[in-house]
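Hello Y.,

Per our agreement to keep a running log of every chain we model this quarter, I'm adding this entry. I've kept the format consistent with earlier entries: sequence first, then predicted structure.
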Amino acid sequence: MSLKTKSSKKTNKTITKTISHFRKHYEEVSDFGEIFELIKEGVEATIGRSRTGLMLGLADLGVRPNGFIGAFYPVGSNVIVLNKTPIKVIEATRPEILKSYIFHVLMHEYLHTLGILNERHTDLFVYKINEKLFGENHEATKMSFNFDRLLPQLMLPAMGLQPPQSIHIELVNDFEKTNYIG
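Predicted structure for the entry above:
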């Protein structure tokens, strides 16, 4: 498995310009749809792959003592489902990392929609893409590098919550801005 770039002959000037572009836009995005559009642009710029026609669903999937599901993508579908519980906990305890968390989880699931299904490969892709887009010291890159170590500590306040018996998925309006023709 390797992370191929669209153009392997980028100059340092072009890479610096790319990092500057993505850092600026990252600071400007504020909702799920805007974050997702930046993810799609970054993935296409780095690995040359994209897709449209995706929807975002939010569901309360809870947390468990041994971890939590941040999101999932039912293979073959056109929906990514985010777990609302970690979002609520992060929003209440560490709001400064919420955007990087959402960026990380959405990119991870978006890569699944592109056919990258192996979890370890997907995690590596997320880290490598973020490193190329933002540099190694950016919060999105740090989140993708330290994801497993950072978030279990944040979920301790939610550990008493039981996962729901059934799942209700709430679709997010105007999630994907790109026009889709089926």
